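2024-03-11 09:14:02 INFO worker-7 job=invfold-0412 stage=load source=structure_tokens
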């Protein structure tokens, strides 16, 4: 939420999730995977943001979304390094 509030993550620009220094060194295949997943990751972040705006106390749904997002990020970064700014 801090990255969204600081405008480091734009909720409607998937490329804002990418760590450009690492992303530029990826193979074309890993870049494609990162590009594809930024859309779904950003949708999850928007859902988390919306839920936290309604109720600042993390609900079970928010905790589940965060856990799913973290697992997706870790799975993708296993091959390419710290690809995302999260």
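2024-03-11 09:14:09 INFO worker-7 stage=emit residues=86
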């Amino acid at each position: 939420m801090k990255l969204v509030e600081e405008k480091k993550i734009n909720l409607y620009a998937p490329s804002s999730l990418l760590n450009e220094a690492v992303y530029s060194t990826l193979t074309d295949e890993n870049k494609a995977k990162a590009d594809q997943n930024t859309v779904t990751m950003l949708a999850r972040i928007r859902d988390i943001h919306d839920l936290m705006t309604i109720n600042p106390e993390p609900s079970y749904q928010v905790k589940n979304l965060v856990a799913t997002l973290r697992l997706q990020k870790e799975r993708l970064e296993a091959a390419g390094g710290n690809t995302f700014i999260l």
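2024-03-11 09:14:09 INFO worker-7 stage=report msg="The chain has four helices and no strands."
2024-03-11 09:14:10 INFO worker-7 job finished
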